[in-house]
Amino acid sequence: NLQCRNSVGEAEYKGVSYLEDDKPKSNITRKNLAVFVSGGGSNFRSVHTATTNGDVHGDVVVLVASKHDCGGAEYAREKGIPVIVFPTTKDSQEVLSAEDLVVALRSYEVDFILLAGYLKLIPAELIRSYTKAILNIHPSLLPAFGGKGYYGMKVHKAVIASGARYSGPTIHYVDEEYDTGRILAQRVVPVLAKDTPEELAARVLHEEHKLYVEVSAALCEERVIWREDGVPIIRSKENPLDYQ
């Protein structure tokens, strides 16, 4: 059984201790989110919609795009969300360094960074400045089918070719390598016998949209807990003594 000690203390489950902070929702401030994209940004759109309809206790205050004219950047401009292009190209009028990007995000008082189809490696300066505050979503059940070169349709083709019976999205914390950070949440999607990569991709993406909103809500409500062994878990919204 799970036993909670004090409002700010420890909980124990099966002999493992967890740090607890049962702060009332009314005292939790809205969080500022930065989203990073490289393409159409469908996950970005899902999270942004959830912030505007009240499902996520936060706001997307800035978008970072690797391409000036990608679909995600165009959507952000339509919604009045500031757009930062990073990394900048050599022929850009203004060259933005990693340190400049950190300063810019600080100016927007960003609490959490969500990577949503951002294909560039995150600079070490940014990871050090936002420790345990950068998440990425990947279209397979990590650690399988992850790492450099595994993105988009390449992932789904590899899953089907392997004969794997299950796939699905993974949300994980970002470190200085591709897809190796601690896993926070996953959602299982069956791989059907006659699936094409496009069919599998569509089902996985459907679950990505739902999962990223759920995780964003947990972040903004301060329901992410780090176990003593360094594994992050999510406290249930309905019952603070249960974990997802």
Automatic annotation (TrEMBL):
Keywords from the named record: Chloroplast, Plastid, Purine biosynthesis, Transferase, Transit peptide
UniProt-annotated location(s): Plastid, Chloroplast
Domain Formyl transferase N-terminal: 31-215
Catalytically driven reaction(s): N(1)-(5-phospho-beta-D-ribosyl)glycinamide + (6R)-10-formyltetrahydrofolate = N(2)-formyl-N(1)-(5-phospho-beta-D-ribosyl)glycinamide + (6S)-5,6,7,8-tetrahydrofolate + H(+)
Pfam annotation, one family: Formyl_trans_N
Keyword Plastid among UniProt keywords: yes
Entry GO MF terms: phosphoribosylglycinamide formyltransferase activity
One Gene Ontology term from the biological process aspect of the record: 'de novo' IMP biosynthetic process
EC code(s) of this entry: 2.1.2.2
Domain of life: Eukaryota
GO cellular component: chloroplast; cytoplasm
Pathway connected to this protein: Purine metabolism; IMP biosynthesis via de novo pathway; N(2)-formyl-N(1)-(5-phospho-D-ribosyl)glycinamide from N(1)-(5-phospho-D-ribosyl)glycinamide (10-formyl THF route): step 1/1
Cross-referenced NCBIfam families: PurN
Family: Belongs to the GART family.
HAMAP family for this protein: PurN
Protein's UniProt name: Phosphoribosylglycinamide formyltransferase, chloroplastic
Native source organism of the sequence: Erythranthe guttata
